[in-house]
Amino acid sequence: MPAQNPTGFSISEFKAAASPRSAYAKRDPWARYEAWRYTGPFSRLQRFKCIFPGFGIASVAFAGYCAYEHFFLKDDHHHGDSHH
């Protein structure tokens, strides 16, 4: 019969708990506290959507200005024509 460990520490249980594939890692008590980092507004899709805030509005405004300039603002100077 092996001698009893007075501290109750078992190196084999420690190695099993430290393994990333262990049952203990799957029952991580801190997992629920870390879960908020990957849900809701912090999910990967939401972070990607918000990488350039205002880019969509700026693109539409720029396209609108380009259309306005093309159709309503005429250049009366005729640059490049020879002056007789």
TrEMBL record:
One of its GO terms (biological process) is mitochondrial respiratory chain complex I assembly. Belongs to the complex I NDUFB3 subunit family. Accessory subunit of the mitochondrial membrane respiratory chain NADH dehydrogenase (Complex I), that is believed not to be involved in catalysis. Complex I functions in the transfer of electrons from NADH to the respiratory chain. The immediate electron acceptor for the enzyme is believed to be ubiquinone. PANTHER family: NADH DEHYDROGENASE [UBIQUINONE] 1 BETA SUBCOMPLEX SUBUNIT 3 (PTHR15082:SF2), NADH-UBIQUINONE OXIDOREDUCTASE B12 SUBUNIT (PTHR15082). It is a single-pass membrane protein. One of its GO terms (cellular component) is mitochondrial inner membrane. It is found in: Mitochondrion inner membrane. This is NADH-ubiquinone oxidoreductase B12 subunit family protein. It comes from Aspergillus nanangensis. Keywords: Electron transport, Membrane, Mitochondrion, Mitochondrion inner membrane, Respiratory chain, Transmembrane, Transmembrane helix, Transport.
